[in-house]
């Protein structure tokens, strides 16, 4: 079992920045991929970014150049740095870790609005 807890999020103006953090605990030795998803109002959940144990990353086209994902294997944490936020980035952001199965956090709200 792996427990996943997100932190960060909130209300920010367009063009602003936020940093989301996620901590995994429990049977973390089997975790290879750590992901960030989001689900906007009336939209399906989509993969925003993922990072593997070696630091290899992949980001959705819609966030490339604005978002950065990073990971600390020693602390079993993953972060998502979000710059130049746009109203369309408004969503609930979820952290997910992939081990024997996928474990999800509870989600954290990000609202981009003036």
Concise synopsis of the structure shown:
The chain is mainly beta and 114 residues long. The chain has strands spanning 2-7, 10-12, 18-26, 33-39, 46-51, 57-59, 67-72, 77-82, 91-98, 102-104, 108-112.
Describe the 3D structure.
The chain has 114 residues and is mainly beta. Helices cover 0% and strands 54% of the residues. It has strands at 2-7, 10-12, 18-26, 33-39, 46-51, 57-59, 67-72, 77-82, 91-98, 102-104, 108-112. Strands 2, 4, 5, 6, 9, 10 and 11 form a seven-stranded mixed β-sheet that branches.
Rg, Å, rounded: 13 Å
Oligomer state equals: single chain
Largest sheet: 7 strands, mixed
Following the backbone from N to C, one meets helices and strands in this order, namely EEEEEEEEEEE
End-to-end CA span:
40 Å
Number of strands: 11
Class from secondary-structure proportions: mainly beta
State the helix count. 0
Mean pLDDT: 95
- Please tell me what the overall shape is: globular
**Percent of sequence in beta strands:** over 45%
Low-confidence stretches: none
The helix content, as a percent range, equals under 10%
């Amino acid at each position: 079992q792996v427990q996943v807890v997100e932190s960060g999020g909130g209300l920010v103006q367009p063009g602003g920045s936020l940093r989301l953090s996620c901590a995994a605990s429990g049977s973390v030795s089997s975790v290879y991929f750590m992901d960030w998803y989001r689900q906007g109002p009336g939209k399906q959940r989509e993969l925003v970014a993922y990072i593997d144990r070696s630091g290899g990353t992949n980001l959705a086209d819609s966030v490339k150049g604005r978002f950065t994902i990073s990971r600390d294997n020693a602390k079993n944490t993953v972060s998502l740095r979000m710059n130049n936020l746009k109203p369309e980035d408004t969503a609930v952001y979820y952290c997910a870790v992939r081990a024997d199965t996928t474990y999800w956090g509870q989600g954290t709200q990000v609202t981009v609005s003036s």
